Amino acid sequence: MAELKRTSEVVDAAGKAHDHILYLTDQVQQTQTSFDDEHAHLVVYHPYVPEQPAQTDPNTGQELVPAQPAQEAYWEIQPAEDGHTHDPADYVPTQPKSEDEPTALAEAQSLWRAAEELERDAIDSGIEAEDYYCGKQWDESDKQLLEGQGRAALTINVIESKIDTLSGYQREQRTDISYKPVEDGDQRACDLLNIATKVILDRCYFAREQSQVFVDIAVPGRGIFVPSINRDKDLRGDIVWERLPWHMFKCGPHNKLDASDAEHQHIEVMASLGRLKQLYPDKADDIDRDYETMCSSREHDNPRPDAYSDSPKDLPVSTMYNGLPMVDIAKKEYRLVQTMSKKYTTQKIAVDTDSDFYFPMWGWKSADINRVKTIPGLFVFEANTTKIRIRRWAGNVLLTDEDPADLPSDGFPTVVVYGKKRGNMFWGKVEAVKDSQMEINKRASQAIDIGNTCAVYGYGYDDGTFLDSKEEKKFRGNATRPGFVTKLADTNRPPYRFEGTNFPSEIVGLMQQGLDRVNEQLNITPADPGANTSGAQLMTQQKQKMAGNEFLFDNLTFSSVAIGRMTLRMIQKYYKPARLARLVMNSDKRHQQNVGDKPLGEWTYQEILEILANADLEKMDVEVSESTYGATARTAIFMLIQELMQSGAPIPPEMLVQAADIPADMKQDMLEAIARQQDAQSQAQSSTRNMELEKTLIAQGQIPPAVAQEFGLTTGQPPADEIESPAQPEETDIGTDQAASLAPL
């Protein structure tokens, strides 16, 4: 850990106040403050000391050295020659002079309008794709016309089922974010980060949010993730990732699929007047004045009744921009817009190459920057930097204007995912099949109309056909029922049946062609794995199902890497080692997790805390990737391992259990049972080997039978009292030292 701070201010004997710039680093044992008032202070680093248990006399149990609690790392500022010293303090950067509110508001509104006009066609197309997915596929005027003529307007929604199938594939292929160490990084710290990230994302139901974003990129063609810090349950802040409805986002010109090269982005939502004033109480009076101005303005359209009263009086809606109401007077709502734009500046950066320390001195005074140059080991260079400026506005009121320093990335605090993008247009899977889907609907409706026309049949009769009016009425009521009976006046004059025409089979063929065309264009094919499918075949089928849709999954994977980087940045800021250690220890793991070379449960809290404290999370550099945990992938991997074992591959049984998709507690019980069985087998084999060795040594005469019997060794012969032993001279008796040397056998 390393940072630049300042010291508290001290007044010397001459009445002159001074302070110092303070460089704190745990990379060296001591550093020095800036040189001010003709002196500098030595700064000594005291590293973290783990808890020391009490030492007692093993014989008397008397405590010799009392237990020592853990000592957190700290820096100590040594006194100067005159005895004065300082305390560490935070350096408060000066905020650059901001432009006046009218200018800042006008610029934000101009950027939003530019993004709105730029993406209007793509957004309209995306809204239409959403309608098609939801089954709203007929133009309302066409539907009313057909229904007014008594004709069918059917919707055979093929798109919904296909997209749902594709979404099901994504759920099967869900992945975990995985951190891997770079260069000399600590694998154990990365393992702990993997567990912590899994817990954090599970708590905010990230898998569900990710699946919703996947549907967004498959249907309208764009999905958005946004991070936030939620303090409802924990004042320290919980990391939360959520899906932002795609139509609430607009972006300036860009070419990259993550929109990182855009100059401005916008998030918008309709907020009630009351909520707006609660969120921004300092601007409540300005909001009220703006709302009164809106109500009195004559530049309105789309009048309608007040949504919150029974008054029949129509209220206007303020002038809309491209069909979007900026202020809905009837509903008392404002369009709240967050405009995020890039701000390019030249910045001074303090550097210590030995400690790999780079500190941007944003908002530092020039005099203080010059003081930094007097600290040994530090030098200052100039660099072009990019910051994100965030302005929130509603109507004609600028609510906030800030350059936040705690964003989760160096760019925009959003993760944008596209289906397909060319120029200013973006689209998903639905766009290509709109016409084919509409053709299916029209053919089905046409088939119903033709079927109703063709299915015309009836009976003709004259006044003398039936015996009386009672039989005529009976015939009219029962003619279409099977097995009806009626009396005729003359059997030579039965009622005459009029048959309808045959239904044209060409209509059915056209409907089937439309269905085939939709299936071909969407290229989403469900597959039945079958009862005897092998693991390799299952994985091959998974790849085949993805053919033609890989771009969606590739883009989603790319977004997961960005989310992993941002999450790590937020963990570094909001989760100190002690909190992170408790989070990991208390995690409810779905599968057994290892930290380094042993299971998490075998590590103590102090050991985990020490790993995290030594890893320096704020500087930790990792590689972000994905690890598959989808149900289908786990099943395929399990089947592959099983097939390899059956073919004779030297795979230990515990590896198969680890890959099994079973509850964690059951998996742990099985692993422990396997370990006990292996220990028992190992002991049995060791005992057998010892017995064979004993027999060999006895047979070779290296161990006399009498000695073997005395030490309980296996001779493979009858007991000694049943054997007539030859007379042995006294000088050949084995000595005590020699017997002791044989005992281990």
Description:
It contains 20 helices and 32 strands. It is of the alpha+beta class. The strands form 12 sheets. Strands 14, 15, 20, 21, 22, 23 and 24 form a 7-stranded antiparallel sheet that branches. Strand 30 and strand 31 form a beta hairpin. Helix 14 packs across helix 15. The longest helix has 36 residues. The chain starts with a strand and ends with a helix.
Q: In a nutshell, what does this entry contain?
A:
This protein has 745 residues and is an alpha+beta fold. The protein is 39% helix and 21% strand. It has 20 helices and 32 strands.
Q: Oligomerization state of this entry?
A: single chain
Low-confidence stretches: 716-745
Radius of gyration over alpha carbons? 40 Å
* Main beta sheet strand tally, sense and closure: 7 strands, antiparallel
State the share of residues found in helices, binned by percent: 25-40%
Overall body shape: flat
Measured between the Cα atoms of the first and last residue, the distance is: 56 Å
Give me the secondary-structure category.
alpha+beta
Proportion of beta-strand residues:
15-25%
Quickly count the helices.
Answer: 20
> How many E strands?
32
Mean pLDDT: 81
Key words describing this protein structure:
745 residues, alpha+beta, 7-stranded antiparallel beta sheet, 3-stranded antiparallel beta sheet, 20 helices, 32 strands, 39% helix, disordered C terminus
